[in-house]
């Protein structure tokens, strides 16, 4: 799907929530979805980053977005319920959920991982996504054709030394996607994963500090796959884990 070309109005009138919309891949996905006609709900930890994305979208003349400041590490069941109720009252439905927010934690041998780091990574990368998706499921059901997208990683498909709790969390994400996909079956909802591949963001820079950033793909390069899974062109696709970059 690396060559997918969305039509100008591919996401017109869709309502799509993006987690981690203030930075990195989530920021670019939010702006791209808005460019193709979606009303985007920008969820993230740092309010001023969300406000910058909001301004960019409004200044470009795309549909007016909404902002949801939320720290997924501390969010409660009630926070997710309230969010679902707000979406229901403001929009009546949700057409897309991009579970993108994630943290890397620290890399190193599993023999030495720190339990609080492990718990934080699991909370943000797995538990929060499970709880958010569950809470939003009733509003996703109200869409004619809804897409849930989780964000995986190469280290969530094949074990690699020293990627520690992050890798474990991404295996869990793949499993969560597959389980959801089996359960939604042939309904109005489809559930898939994207593996972005090495991408020029702060997370990648933290994992590979000595790397030549200019040699990496940019978040913009990944957008054909991100658009494909949110557009109705993928309405028959369920339970897949797609690579956003061509393997070299
Ligand atoms: P970045 O670190 O650039 O951005 C992560 C985003 O998640 C930020 O907007 C951040 O918000 C948000 N976030 C982090 N913690 C929380 C939290 N507790 N609550 C709410 N939001 C939070 O990462 P990338 O854009 O690189 O990564 C996006 C996704 O892609 C992640 O799931 C990552 O694992 C995955 N991925 C990335 C790859 C890469 O090479 N970049 C490769 C494979 C997978 P804030 O800025 O406010 O902290």
From TrEMBL:
It holds the Pfam family adh_short. PANTHER family: ALCOHOL DEHYDROGENASE. Transmembrane segments: none annotated. It comes from Pseudoalteromonas aliena SW19. Belongs to the short-chain dehydrogenases/reductases (SDR) family. Signal peptide: none annotated. Keywords: Oxidoreductase. This is YciK family oxidoreductase. The keyword Oxidoreductase applies. Coiled coil: none annotated. InterPro entries: NAD(P)-bd_dom_sf, Sc_DH/Rdtase_CS, SDR_fam.
């Amino acid at each position: 799907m690396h060559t997918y070309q969305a039509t100008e109005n591919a996401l017109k009138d869709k309502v799509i929530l993006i987690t981690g919309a203030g930075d990195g891949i989530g920021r670019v996905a939010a702006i791209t979805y808005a460019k193709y006609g979606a009303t985007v709900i920008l969820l993230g930890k740092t309010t001023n980053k969300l406000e910058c994305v909001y301004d960019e979208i409004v200044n470009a003349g795309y549909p007016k977005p909404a902002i949801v400041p939320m720290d997924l590490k501390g969010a409660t069941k009630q926070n997710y319920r309230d969010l679902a109720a707000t979406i229901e009252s403001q929009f009546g439905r949700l057409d897309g959920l991009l579970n993108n927010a994630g943290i890397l934690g620290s890399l190193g041998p599993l023999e030495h991982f720190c339990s609080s780091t492990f718990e934080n990574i699991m909370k943000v990368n797995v538990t929060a996504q499970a709880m958010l998706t569950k809470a939003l499921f009733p509003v996703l059901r109200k869409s004619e054709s809804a897409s849930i997208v989780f964000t995986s990683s190469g280290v969530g498909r094949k074990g690699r030394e020293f990627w520690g709790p992050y890798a474990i969390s991404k295996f869990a994400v793949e499993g969560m996607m597959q389980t959801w996909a089996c359960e939604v079956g042939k309904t109005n909802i489809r559930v898939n994963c994207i593996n972005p591949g090495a991408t020029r963001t702060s997370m990648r820079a933290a994992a590979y500090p000595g790397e030549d950033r200019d040699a990496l793909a940019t978040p913009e390069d990944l957008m054909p796959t991100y658009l494909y899974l949110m557009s109705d062109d993928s309405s028959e696709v369920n339970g897949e884990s797609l690579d956003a970059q061509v393997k070299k």
